[in-house]
Q: What sequence folds into this?
């Protein structure tokens, strides 16, 4: 019996497959049921400790990390006082400024791999110190605690002494109630941990058990820096100083719905010279004749490519992930190889829709009480609004809900509202989503809040319910914008003029050319026409600004000053006719649809005071949540594929954060139209 007892003391607990987090979506999980932790940038690791202190470190995909991180073994044993334990956590490296440094961890891993190859079985020592950050406790003594709620597991974990906090410590947790007591919000906490150099924030449901091997909505991740696991599926030969090596890697990931491996773009930056050489040698040994994707990747993307078995997992940073059309990582930068992740675990990034009120909309009471079943009352600025059907899916293909539409308009409001101010709004509403019936709404609907600004203007059309005036909404602040979004007004359209006191219609301050691709053409041909318009308008002393229509076409604007409402249409028509004469095989200036196939129609009539165009940053009622997006002229000139100028709501939020409001130039560059 004594021998069996000694054997039991040296028995390391079994490995427990780690629980995985789901993407958290655009809105932070909020409420007393949530606890938050800083999201760490390292190697996910399970630390298994025997009663006698023997320790095994296991990666997320079951690799043995013990020899690589031997200095972490046995550190926790003293605090356990002879008990076994299984800890879930992350191995990280801190730099001299106290920030987690994933690149240093990757460099250390490279040195270990060379050591293991050249000196197998010899202890590995490295000057870069590592630290195990525990965030969950799965077993303590003889008690498996995975079925206990998260809050109880955390309490047990925090009671385990950590004899050497420089090598092993516990990730700090922030319960929602503690944040509230400190007058902090989850968003404020995310901002703080991001500023401190962490990767983002984890939100964990306090009542949830630990579910081994499953990706659960009870854990949500909200990264500040977008990071994605990728499969290396091929490479392009390098040029110049990279001759003989790869120039860029061709990437893939699995569709979580079908399991198919799909092409998601490429990466050519972020490699050190040593990493490029090592990875190239590794890929040469995995060469195959054909690509590994379920569908053919775009020919222009993979010309001259060399294909490999999709066995190498890497990690990239990226600026945005486009989901309209074909999925693509944009502006990706290589971070390193991930030995701790299996190829089958690499899946496409997906938004995780969570129906919630917009971030700036706070409850009217500490806990909003439902009104009329599916309504919730929120405070937006100084106004109270009743929002309804927040979980209704308005974009079925992407699963985008009304809550997320409201969230988009809330976040884009600072750049959108200046372009709506003073302009009577025409809304296109989609009460049952983009697959259902849509209708134009000019008159303010019954039940609109009394504080909503409106303007009554004459209207000659007999179709306007027999009236000779229309009461248009004016959307000039965030509450009005949220009110419109709650009506499922996905599209907002405005004229090229504003209203003044009286009210009176002021002269146009914008000139617009609406480039509409006919059958057989696309936004690529529109971009070529836009380049010609840019040259002419610039020569005429105007400052053109381009934006996508959010549908198929492109629009070119210029800020103008005029006293004649008919002048912009006359000027635009003459210019459109000029381009049609010069290039009749590409441009048409006539409205008849029969003459449009194979050509780009320059719709000059959008300058008519009775017409409207989609506002910049407005969503469109298409299959995907595309946005009418201001773009640079470099992007116009560089457009060679339709997807180059397709932007969704998520993309546009990121663009505005990166480059600001490109459409703002219109207000600062107004000029007189030339005499023709």
A:
């Amino acid at each position: 019996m004594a021998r069996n007892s000694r054997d039991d003391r040296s028995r390391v607990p079994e490995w427990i497959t780690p629980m995985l987090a789901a993407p958290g979506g655009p809105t932070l999980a909020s409420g007393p049921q949530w606890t938050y932790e800083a999201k760490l940038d390292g190697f996910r690791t399970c630390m298994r400790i025997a009663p006698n202190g023997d320790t095994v470190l296991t990666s997320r995909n079951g690799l043995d990390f013990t020899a690589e991180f031997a200095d972490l073994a046995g550190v926790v044993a003293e605090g356990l006082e002879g008990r076994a334990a299984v800890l879930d956590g992350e191995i990280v490296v801190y730099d001299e400024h106290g920030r987690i440094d994933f690149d240093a961890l990757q460099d250390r891993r490279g040195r270990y791999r060379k050591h293991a190859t050249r000196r197998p079985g010899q202890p590995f020592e490295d000057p870069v110190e590592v630290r195990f950050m525990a965030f969950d406790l799965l077993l303590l003594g003889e008690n498996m605690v995975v079925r206990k709620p998260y809050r109880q597991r955390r309490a047990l974990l925090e009671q385990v002494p950590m004899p050497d906090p420089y090598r092993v410590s516990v990730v700090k947790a922030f319960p929602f109630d503690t944040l509230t007591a400190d007058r902090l919000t989850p968003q404020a906490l995310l901002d703080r941990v991001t500023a401190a150099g962490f990767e983002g924030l984890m939100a964990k449901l306090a009542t949830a058990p630990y579910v081994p091997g499953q990706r659960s909505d009870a854990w949500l991740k909200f990264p500040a820096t977008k990071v994605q696991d990728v499969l290396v599926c091929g490479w392009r030969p390098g040029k110049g100083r990279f001759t003989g090596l790869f120039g860029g890697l061709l990437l893939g990931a699995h569709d979580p719905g079908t399991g198919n491996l799909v092409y998601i773009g490429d990466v050519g930056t972020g490699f050190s010279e040593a990493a490029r050489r090592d990875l190239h040698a590794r890929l040469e040994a995995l060469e195959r004749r054909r690509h590994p994707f379920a569908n053919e990747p775009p020919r222009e993307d993979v010309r001259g490519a060399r294909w490999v078995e999709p066995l190498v997992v890497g990690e990239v940073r990226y600026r945005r992930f486009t989901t309209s059309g074909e999925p693509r990582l944009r502006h990706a930068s290589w971070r390193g190889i991930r030995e701790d992740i299996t190829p089958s675990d690499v899946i496409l990034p997906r938004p995780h829709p969570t129906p919630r009120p917009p971030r700036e909309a706070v409850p009217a009471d500490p806990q909003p009480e439902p009104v009329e079943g599916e309504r919730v009352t929120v405070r937006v600025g100084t106004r109270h609004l009743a929002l309804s059907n927040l979980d209704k899916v308005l974009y079925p293909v992407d699963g985008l809900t009304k809550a997320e539409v409201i969230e988009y308009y809330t976040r884009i409001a600072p750049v959108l509202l200046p372009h709506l101010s003073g302009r009577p709004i025409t809304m296109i509403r989609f009460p049952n989503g983009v697959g259902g019936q849509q209708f134009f709404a000019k008159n303010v609907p019954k039940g609109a809040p009394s504080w909503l600004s409106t303007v009554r203007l004459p209207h000659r059309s007999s179709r306007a319910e027999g009236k000779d005036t229309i009461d248009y909404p004016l959307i000039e602040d965030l509450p009005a914008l949220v009110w419109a979004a709650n009506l499922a007004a996905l599209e907002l359209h405005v004229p090229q003029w504003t209203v003044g006191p009286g009210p009176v219609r002021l002269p146009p301050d914008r000139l617009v050319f609406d480039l509409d691709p006919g059958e057989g053409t696309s936004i690529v041909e529109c971009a070529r026409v836009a380049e010609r318009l840019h040259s002419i308008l610039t020569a005429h002393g105007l400052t053109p600004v381009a934006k996508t229509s959010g549908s198929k076409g492109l629009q070119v604007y210029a800020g103008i000053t005029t006293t004649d409402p008919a002048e912009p249409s006359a000027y635009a028509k003459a210019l459109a006719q000029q381009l049609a004469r010069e290039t009749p095989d590409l441009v048409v200036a006539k409205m008849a649809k029969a003459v449009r196939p194979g050509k780009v129609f320059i719709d000059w009539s959008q300058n008519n005071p009775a017409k409207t165009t989609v506002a910049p940053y407005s969503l469109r009622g298409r299959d995907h949540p595309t946005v009418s997006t201001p773009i640079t002229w470099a992007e116009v000139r560089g457009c060679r594929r339709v997807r180059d100028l397709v932007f969704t709501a998520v993309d546009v939020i990121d663009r505005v954060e990166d480059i600001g409001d490109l459409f703002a130039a219109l207000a600062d560059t107004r000029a007189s139209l030339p005499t023709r």
